[in-house]
C-alpha cells in the first residue's frame, strides 16, 4: 500500500552464530531495562497513592477505544457509516478527612475524534477546575498515563505541566507507564461505559448517533457511580488555539522518548527523570523537590531560555521522533525474528 505512511513489519534476519550471540545479548540488555522500567513505574504509582499528602490529587487516565454509535434497527449501510464518540476515562485519588484514600471516576465524552494534545488540554482544563471547585485547598496534581507521544508525552504537555501553577494555581507532575504496560482501572471504566450504552440500545432505551446522544444515555443511568462530562467542539478549538500560540515559544525536551517522569519547577522549567521516584528526598507535602540526589534533570521548555544549553543534534532527533511517533529501540527489536544462518 503506497499511501506515504510508515508501517512496521516482521522481518527475517539471518546471522552467523557469532553475530547472533552479539545481537541476542544486545536485545536482552534492552529488554532487561524495559522490564526494570515497568517494575519501577508500577512501584512508584503504588507508593505515591499510599503516601499521597493532603491537598494532593493523583489522576490516572487514558483514552478508551472510540465508541461506535448504533441503533436498535438500522439499514445495512448504516453499519459501514457509523459515527464514533471519543471516551476518556479518568480516576482521581485523594486523601479524605479520616486519612484514607478515596477515588471517584469520570468519563469525558466528545464528538471530537482527534486524540492529541489539544483534546487532552481541553479535558484537563475542565478536570482541574472541577477538582478545584470541590477542594479549593488543592495544591498539587499528579497525572499517570501511558506514553504515546501524540497524546501525552510531547512538548505541549510538558509546557502545560510547567505552566499549570500559573494558569490554574496548582502544581503539576506527569508520570508515564512503560510502553505496552499502561493498562489499568481506566480500561475497566471505559469497557463498562460502552457496555452500558450497548445494553441501553439493545433494550430500546436509547438511540446513540453522536456524542450528545451518548452523554444523554450515560446520564440516564441513575445507578451508575461514574460521572460524565462533555467536551464540546468549541472547547477543543479554543484549546487548540492556545497550544498553537505557545508552539512559537517552546521547544522539544531533550530525551523525550526516554522520560517517564516530569515535574514542574516554574513556568517554563521542569524536572525530568527516566523513572519516577517518590522517596522522601524527592517527594513531600509540597510536591516534587527541586534539590535532590536522585538524578533529576532541570530542563527548559522555552526556546530562548538561557539556563540550559541542550545538545542541538539530539534535540533535532527528538523532534523527528516525536513527530513520527517512532518506537524505541527495544520496541523495534521485539518485532524482529532472528534466525541462525547456515555455517
Name the poorly predicted regions: 306-343
Order of helices and strands: EHEEHEEHEHEHHEHEEEEEHHE
Structure class = alpha/beta
Whole-number tally of structural domains = 1
Total strand segments:
14
DSSP summary: helix tally: 9
Write up this protein.
- With 343 residues, the chain is an alpha/beta fold.
- It has one domain (12-340).
- The chain is built from nine helices and 14 strands.
- Strands 2, 3, 4, 5, 6, 7, 8, 9, 10 and 13 form a ten-stranded mixed beta sheet that branches.
- Helix 3 runs parallel beside helix 4 and helix 3 (117-134) crosses helix 7.
Secondary structure topology:
Blueprint: E1 12-15, H1 17-50, E2 56-61, E3 67-68, H2 76-80, E4 84-95, E5 101-110, H3 117-134, E6 140-145, H4 155-168, E7 171-176, H5 185-202, H6 211-219, E8 227-230, H7 233-247, E9 261-266, E10 269-273, E11 283-284, E12 287-288, E13 297-300, H8 312-324, H9 329-334, E14 337-340
Parallel strand pairs: 1-14, 2-6, 5-8, 6-7
Antiparallel strand pairs: 2-4, 3-4, 4-5, 7-9, 9-10, 10-13, 11-12
